[in-house]
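User: Assemble these into one structure.

Assistant: Restating your components, then the assembled model:
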Amino acid sequence: MPSFGERLDAAFDAFGHVCLGIDAHAHLLAEWGLPASADGARAFGLRAVDAAVGVVGIVKPQIAFYERHGSAGYAALEDVIRAARSAGLVVIADVKRGDIGSTIDAYGEAWLTPGSPLEVDAMTLVAYHGVGSISGPIELARANGKGVFVLAATSNVEAYPLQSAMLQTGAHHRLSVAAGIVAEVDAINGGAGLGSVGVVIGATVGFADYGIDPGLLASTPILAPGFGEQGAVLSRLPQLYGPASANVVANLGRSVLKAGPAGVRGALEEQVDELSRALTV
Amino acid sequence: MPSFGERLDAAFDAFGHVCLGIDAHAHLLAEWGLPASADGARAFGLRAVDAAVGVVGIVKPQIAFYERHGSAGYAALEDVIRAARSAGLVVIADVKRGDIGSTIDAYGEAWLTPGSPLEVDAMTLVAYHGVGSISGPIELARANGKGVFVLAATSNVEAYPLQSAMLQTGAHHRLSVAAGIVAEVDAINGGAGLGSVGVVIGATVGFADYGIDPGLLASTPILAPGFGEQGAVLSRLPQLYGPASANVVANLGRSVLKAGPAGVRGALEEQVDELSRALTV
């Protein structure tokens, strides 16, 4: 069984580094002529998957916009995930789960167990309870050829005080919270090829502001929000991520989805080309 | 419309400070003679609600154990929530959601919008993206007589390095991450009676270890995990939380649920009596 890191590498080779964020915002549903309902979110997600197939290798459904519609929304989400995985897309569930003990294990089982209704290829995690608290889903992921992405430095400005706070104790004291997470994940991945435990580092983030050492990202996949509507420019990805650029999953959501159901595939193709050119310069 | 803080106060007056954690662990389902399925989790939750009615005023379903079963699990959860709210219980959804912008707003809408399928009275939030990032659900909560509980200092040991990290910038620099969240929440509540924005501070936590000022908790509800199986002793709540004890929601899950479907109500009554005696000494 290939590892998640190996599958991600294969997706990079085949389609490049762009990921389509399936963000079923109420205002996008309206622009696409769809109802603000679970059925609308299902149609939106299935259409987005169609647009992604053959253009990108990775999609990232944003679970909040399905949860908004309760169990009916989750049923729609299951259909969208199934369609994406059947088409061979790598699916990252953006759920940002974090908890302890048997609770975080249950979250891991929900998203990373083969055959479970919500089975995806990777999920996002938040380690506010410490990286040690999420060892259950990390182990489950590795056992099943799945992956996780742990929030490190996010793309929003309100995050800076907390994520730049300085650790006073533990193995990574004197590092920032974000840099400490990067270091802990690096130790878990262990350095042989692209690992299966990723981090989230926003494209709006200056590594130096958090004291993040790019050398510790050599084996770590990086999920990168912040391009497009949040202000970061895709063609500058190599400057933003430096030597770690080869590991970046560049998420694009609203900036391409706003092209509408007829235009989204073309908009996505343009962005894939733009990033491909930037990375081969 | 009464605020969430007012409703929580009324629940304290009527039933005391114990909250039943509805934790549909696989091993508890087995002990209760229920299948490890959405139907099993539904039956477990409905039975737990029955046991709570008339004994405690507050229940806290742990969403992970419903999400484990996908959309069918969420349908079961909706039934459990509906039964609890119909019985007049204050329902806190333990979801620990955290994100930014329209995404966190959608999470807030999912759980705090009157009439939504998953409508509860309060939800737990994680502010890894900064307290500013969760202003959407906080505002939505207050507009609808709902509440939130923001993770501050959790009950697990792996959490200490991150939650005790020292803020280097912002309004609360030189405070720990956990103490900074307590201070930000205090400022939001503003001090007139029990507010609607709570924090999570585990019963295993020493306030001094995080530099948390109990004086800043005078208007803040405190959701307290860590009693029972995690090691904290309910009768010591007044010593643990000091002057903030009157605001504490003391969660009990496995330690009473393990009494089985026939015994859980009695086990819960015993704990309510024990805490009541401790608080009136």
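Chain A touches chain B through 62 residues (CB under 8 Å).
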